[in-house]
Amino acid sequence: MRLLPVSNVRTLLIGVFINLLVVSSFAQDNDTITVDTTLVDVGVMVRSKDGRAVKGLSKENFKVFDNGQEQEIVLFSDETAPVSYGFVYDLHPAASEKTRLILDSIRKFTGNLGNADDFFTIVFNERGSLVLDFVPSVDQVTRHLSLGERNEPSSLYDAVFLAAEKVEERPNVKKTLIIISDGKDEDSHHSFNELSRLLKNVNVQVFSILVGEEPVYRYSDITLGKQPRSLDEDLSLDRAALAELSKQSGGNVQERPADNVLNLVSLYKRIDLEMRSQYSLGFYPEKVDGKWHDLKVDVEMLDGSREAKLTYRKGYQSPPQQ
Fold it and tell me: Can you list the positions of beta strands (E) in the chain?
């Protein structure tokens, strides 16, 4: 019998612990089981002043605050865990070469994911969408969207809403959406506020590559250890809204040019490195009240300083009180 390496076993146990955390209470009459779903998991990326990932920290180096109140960290891990990816591509039908470039870049990146990682793609425009567990070719996209059958989602917020629900169902602890769009929403059934509320309810990190009319891409880059650069003043409110969705999940928008497959793949790899370099902190909140809770994480570096850049989600939506 082949034995799993110790690191794999630890990662598996951590994933099971986070996803299940079942507290069983057996009643004498009907043997009911109560499932405790109140554990809050916070992925934290720690970078030094020069932008390098900081490893080797322990639970004692961190403090987590829920609405200003320090919480006991009951779960801690610095292990690399598998990642579930959802790619949401807002297709511009007139730019077939750009479409080919973007699809090729996603295909190249996902082709090198680990066996335990998984992904899906949502490609859409005003004519309809494809939701697939592989990366389609340009010809497949063109044929499907030219049939005249407008299937949903066919607009940005609806597509991201579906992607968030879909990636949340994936078994991996770490979940990521990569949105490739100009940020403009066209007649979505879901409003920005509805989408924002959903993203606050799921533990999914959102990265956005904002595509303009010119071949320039921007993405939520939180890996350089620098202060987030503000969006250009001429960016539309639509782009600012998409940037806000990324930031509230733990990302910050920076401008970064990319004009070929390799450059786009390098962006995805930065995101992948970000996801795999995070510390996982878990706590049970003192209050389960159905309200929004602000999160704050502090870290003390190994040299005793607090000069580090931390990236993590800014809060969570508490489930309704039962």
Answer: 40-47, 62-66, 69-71, 75-77, 83-90, 118-125, 128-132, 174-181, 205-211, 217-219, 254-255, 279-283, 292-299, 309-311, 315-317
